[in-house]
Design brief:
The protein has 376 residues and is an alpha/beta fold. The chain is built from twelve helices and 15 strands. It has helices spanning 20-33, 41-54, 65-75, 90-98, 143-153, 204-213, 235-245, 248-266, 294-297, 301-310, 341-349, 361-374, and strands at 58-62, 81-84, 102-105, 128-134, 156-160, 168-169, 172-173, 180-184, 197-201, 218-220, 223-224, 272-274, 281-282, 288-292, 350-353. The strands form four sheets. The protein has a seven-stranded mixed beta sheet, with helices on both faces. The longest helix is centred in the last third of the chain and has 19 residues, at 248-266. It is globular, with a radius of gyration of 21 Å. The structure holds pyridoxal-5'-phosphate.
Length: 376
């Protein structure tokens, strides 16, 4: 069988787009109210809907996930060192840097790609103020073990759940773990507001602090009580979000079918590893990564990435390079590759395949077939 390249590029993801008429209807309300930002009616609606959807106590919406995470560090008054993962998007580490905090990189688990909780304790020093962990690809970290360590050393826990919108452990919302959890609503994320994000927390007083911090620290017209920033989500973003949220559950069902099709076609190929979820986890279906065992498959990840491109299939090397190998962080003691063997191995061998509800099953089959033909 000869495979022709796809006519149009198949991207790694596509944004969920609601019926434009529905969005317009909501925007008409915004227009006639002339209320464009600052905790307007659409913002209030979305905040409540997300609270229910994520099964959490408190939500504070933001203009993007990165600013949300910066504010989380401020609200928890973090300083000194924070133990984190190098296997993440650049924003996670940059946020620490923007708070004058030294990131201390910890190695990851081979099966989940999440921070290895068993390796955290030996990185703790008197300067450690928190653990900043990422639920990579929507797969939850070992939240219990991380909580135990945090309690023992009296340090905070922040989760970057940018990939984990709707992830649940035994029916519990992923945002109920740790002191604060950040979600990103960037267009590439399953639920989005074009740009946007949120912090969620169990502590109501902390939400109040965070709400002040994201609005310049303004309490009343004449009282500025904190050195805040502008992290507010506007009414246009919120309007988009309300309509996108309606589509999430259907999108999950579609992605579940696509995931099954990938697994059916790829799982028997020697040298391809697939991210699995334990039975008690509801996944956010954010990405579909595979790990190439070069010895068994006979080809490298980079070879597969560039060959797929020839067929107009745009896969991504998430997360390569590791944050610990960025020029701005590679001199740190904890960035030493000897301390991060698994993270370096996964980063060099992982590839994320196209994964979104509108992807045809026949195209999924073709992508798998192409990968099969690449095997040596
Ligand atoms: C997308 C993403 C962010 C950043 O979120 P923005 O909303 O784009 O600022 C942070 N961390 C991870 C892991 C992400 O994937």
């Amino acid at each position: 069988m000869i495979i022709k390249p796809f006519k149009e590029p198949i991207f790694v993801t596509r944004p969920l787009l609601p019926d434009l008429k529905k969005v317009t209807k909501r925007l008409e309300k915004v227009w006639s109210s002339q209320w464009l930002t600052n905790n307007g009616p659409q913002h209030i609606i979305l905040e409540n809907k997300i609270k229910q959807f994520l099964k959490v106590e408190n939500v504070s919406l933001f203009n993007n996930g990165t600013i949300a995470l910066i504010v989380a560090c401020q609200a928890l008054k973090l300083k000194g060192e924070v133990i984190t993962t190098p296997f993440t998007f650049a924003a996670t580490t940059h946020v620490l840097k923007w708070n004058n905090i030294t990131p201390v990189f910890c190695d990851i688990e081979k099966d989940t790609f999440n921070i290895d909780a068993d390796k955290i304790e030996k990185l703790i020093t008197p300067k450690t103020s928190a653990i900043l962990a990422v639920h990579v690809f929507g797969n939850p970290c070992n939240v219990e073990k991380i909580q135990r360590i945090a309690k023992k050393y009296n340090i905070k826990v922040i989760y970057d759940a940018a990939h984990a919108f709707g992830t649940e452990i035994d029916g519990k919302g992923i945002g109920t773990f740790g002191d604060v959890t950040m979600f990103s609503f960037h267009a590439t994320k399953l639920f989005h507001t074009a740009e946007g994000g949120a912090l969620v927390m169990n502590d109501k007083a902390l939400k109040q602090d965070i709400d002040y911090l994201k609005n310049f620290g303004i309490k009343t017209e004449e009282e500025i009580i904190k050195a805040g920033i502008n992290g507010k989500m506007n009414e246009l973003q919120a309007s988009v979000g309300i309509e996108v949220l309606e589509l999430v559950k259907r999108e999950w069902k579609k992605r579940e079918i696509i995931r099954r099709e990938y697994i059916k076609n790829l799982s028997k190929i020697e040298g391809i590893g697939i991210l699995d979820y334990p039975k008690n986890i509801h996944s956010s279906y954010q990405y579909f990564p595979i790990v190439i065992d070069e010895k068994k498959f006979g080809r490298s990840r980079n070879f597969i990435h560039s060959e797929l491109k020839k067929y107009n299939v745009i896969s991504r090397k998430y997360f390569y390079p590791l944050c610990s190998n960025f020029e701005c962080y590679r001199e740190f003691k904890s960035s030493n590759k000897k301390n991060l063997p698994i993270a370096n191995e996964i980063a060099n061998n992982i590839i994320t395949l196209p994964f979104y509800g509108a992807l045809n099953l026949s195209d999924v089959k073709t992508i798998c077939y192409i990968i099969k033909t690449l095997k040596k």
